[in-house]
Amino acid sequence: MAEQTCLFCKIVAGAIPAAKLFEDDRAVAFGDINPQAPTHALVIPRAHVASLNEASAEDEALLGHLLVVAARVAREAGHSEGGFRTVINTGADAGQSVFHVHVHVLGGRRLTWPPG
Fold first, then answer.
1. Does the pLDDT of residue 49 top 80, yes or no?
2. How much is the pTM?
3. Rounded to whole angstroms, how far apart are CA atoms 80 and 83?
4. Domain segments of the chain: what residues?
5. Taking CA atoms, which of 70, 74, 88, 114 is between 20 and 30 Å from 31?
6. How far is CA 82 from the centre of its chain?
7. For 2-107, CATH number?
8. Which SS3 state, helix, strand or coil, does residue 38 take?
C-alpha cells in the first residue's frame, strides 16, 4: 500500500520529523529539506493522493484548501506584499519526486520565468 511507503504519509503520521509550519485536520505544511528559495515550504494533504492525475471530484475541496494554506504560509513568512510562487509538479517529467500531491511555496527572492 502506497501510504505505508510514502515519505509524506510518514511525516503526516509523525514517523518522520518535519519542521511544521501549519497543520489542521486536512493539511500539513513544513519546510522543504532542499530549499530552492529563502522560503520553501511544502503543503500536503493528510490523505494520500498520489498526484493531480489521481485526484477526483471528491478531492476538489481538499485541493482548494491546500492553496489557501499555501497563501497563509507565504503570508506568515512575510511574502504577501512582495509575492510568492506556488508550484504543483505532476509526474516524473515535471519533477515530481514524491508521489503524494504537494504544493511548493517559494518566496523571499526574485523568481525568474520560465522556471526551468
1. yes
2. 0.95
3. 5
4. 2-107
5. 114
6. 20
7. 3.30.428.10
8. coil
Residue 14 φ then ψ, to 5°: 85, 5
Strands 39-45 and 103-107: antiparallel
Which residues are tagged catalytic?
Answer: 102
**How many residues does this entry show for the chain?**
116
Rounded to whole angstroms, how far apart are CA atoms 63 and 78? 23
- List 87's β-bridge partners, or say none: 104
Cell numbers representing residue 40 in the block: 520553501
- Say how far apart CA 14 and CA 26 lie, in whole Å: 15
What pLDDT score was predicted for residue 4?
80
CB 8 within 8 A of CB 66: no
Grid cell at residue 114: 520560465
CA-nearest of 88, 109, 110 to 99 is 88
